[in-house]
Task: structure prediction
Amino acid sequence: MVYLEGNKAVIIFVTIAIIAGLLGGFLTTSFLAKPSPQGIQGESGPQGPKGDTGDTGATGVTGAIGAAGATGAQGPQGIQGIQGLQGLNGSNSVIQVIQSQNVTDTTLGSAFTLDQWYNMSILDSAMKLVVDIQSQSRICAELIGSVNLTSPASVWIRLVVDNQLNSTVCMAGVTNSGPGTLSQSLPIQVKILTGALSGGQHTVEVEFLRDESTPVILSRSLYVTEFASP
Result:
């Protein structure tokens, strides 16, 4: 009887010990499983070096050309320009042009009386032209040149056709405006246009008149043009 009771005591004790062990393990596990508080976040680390640039991608396919736009409406007509100069007609057509030139200086000295007309061909054969024209043609003659004058001096120049038809006169001169003398080169130009002439040869002459002192004729050119009859 006592033995049995002793066994019961042992069993009860063992049972209590097991239960206590289970409870202790459960409490310990619960205590250890409780999460700890979160720590302070650390500072950000330095930025890493920039990586190498990647390869350029392949060129894309060219897009299709768009359709052409519609043609715009025609603009308004511009203002009509001024009429051009009338060209030469049959009555004004040039048949021939001849020229004679001399670049040698020629002095109109005291051998030529003042205030008297002389043919310049006496000194310069280039200042006379003979032209053979058609019947009813007209002649246009022109002299272009220059003269050197030492003050006081003056000279008159004109053109003559067949010793009958005279051009207007070109007069060049210089005077003293103070002490001493003045030497100056001046241009000369004269022109004549005749009416209808008979067919055959006609003569064009350059004439001069020494008005004062001793003029010097410089380079000069004589032109003669034949125009067809109107």
Q: What stands out?
A: The helical segments are 2-33.
